[in-house]
Amino acid sequence: MMDTDGANPINLTNNEANDGYPAWSPDGMRIAFVSDREGNSEIYVMDADGRNPINLTGNNAIDTAPAWSPDGKHIAFVSDRDGNFEIYVIDVDGRNPINLTNNAATDYHPNWSPDGEYIAFDSERDGNFEIYVMDVDGRNLTRLTNNEDLDTSPTWSPDSEHIAFNSERDGNFEIYVMDVDGRNLIRLTNNYTDDIFPAWSPDGEQIAFTSTSIGDWEIYVMDADGTNPINLTNNHPSRVLLPPDERDDLYPAWSPVAASR
Question: What is the dotted CATH code of the domain comprising 19-246?
Answer without folding.
Answer: 2.120.10.30
